[in-house]
Give the backbone structure.
Amino acid sequence: MRTPLAARLAGQGTTIFAEMSALALSTGSINLGQGFPDVDGPASIVEDAVNAMRAGRNQYAPGWGVPELRRAVADHQRRFYGLDFDPDSEVLVTTGATEAIAASLLALVDPGDEVVVLEPYYDSYVACIAMAGGQRVPITLRAPDFRLDLDRLRTAVTPRTKLMLINSPHNPTGTVLNDEELSAIAQLAVERDLIVVTDEVYEHITFDGLSHRPLATYDGMRERTLTISSGGKTFSLTGWKVGWAVGPADLVRATMTAKQFLTYTSAAPLQPAIAAALTMADDYFRDFAASLQAKRDRLAAGLEPLGFKVFKPQGTYFLTTDIRPLGYDDGIDFCLGLPERTGVVAIPHSVFYDDKEAGKPLVRWAFCKQDAVIDAAIERLATLVR
Ligand code: PMP
Ligand code: GLN
């Protein structure tokens, strides 16, 4: 029989995260691959969800999301970024940021449209652009700095460009786009009348005093930007899959048009719990980022003496290394052999690139793990150089 997979999904296979997590399980390895914390977020949020279930909030939520979460998301955008959105027409609750990405691309991209996207890509971008029939046009963030190449940004946009898909803080490089980079994106979007979809799921995970600034805050951007985020990262509840898209009513309505036929509506009892979480005091957000910064530093301090070239991220859960100083040059081979050899799982960058060479010697490590787990992973990795 011919392959049943539709041509537009050819080559998508299984996500690298699922593949590597399965390998971690089957080899009993420490999983520094898929980005999920090994300690759950605040117990009070979990209690709120349990209470919502006990209170009978177990039937379909409104398609747009429960009112208190839409309000909480709008309040969050005002509190942290000074942005005003109408909870009734400019906020859509989704099943994780993943659904917001899928629904927005399906809603906004026509076959043949070009989508300018940062490479290395988060894997769902590639699949969703393909499902929409669009063409991806990459802008590569290159080692050692992983900064946005402003000349390439200008040449990437053509008359066929429908939208730019931006991610900052950026997975997997850890780049937090700076003011010059964000201004250049904003200027170009306004000049060429482009939509921008921006994935800001790591908005509260920035380090060294840097803060995240949404693209929607730039001149001319509020009316053309769809901002996507989720509670998964911010509250260490990645399995809950409560996300949202915020933007001008026409972009949000378009996204809703697709979303209603993907999941119709998202998990009802989890929504009030995330609404309450978004109102937590500033201390929570500050302490959370500080704790991840300490973990970043702990992992970096363990990997550097082993010979890895470490690129310290400015944000996210992830740190990237170059493996060439240890005598390896292919991240895929390295990561496939690593569990057997050392009992540790990591993610090869090259699966996130069209330009395979740019990602070949790079490997991503998740540090959203308990200190003892990071230390044990370092201990195991030390056998590579013994
Ligand atoms: N975007 C990026 C950049 C991510 O790293 C992730 C992974 N968690 C997501 C989107 C998906 O978020 P969610 O789990 O809320 O669907
Ligand atoms: N965002 C997580 C990561 O980058 C993975 C989420 C997933 O498995 N889709 O590791």
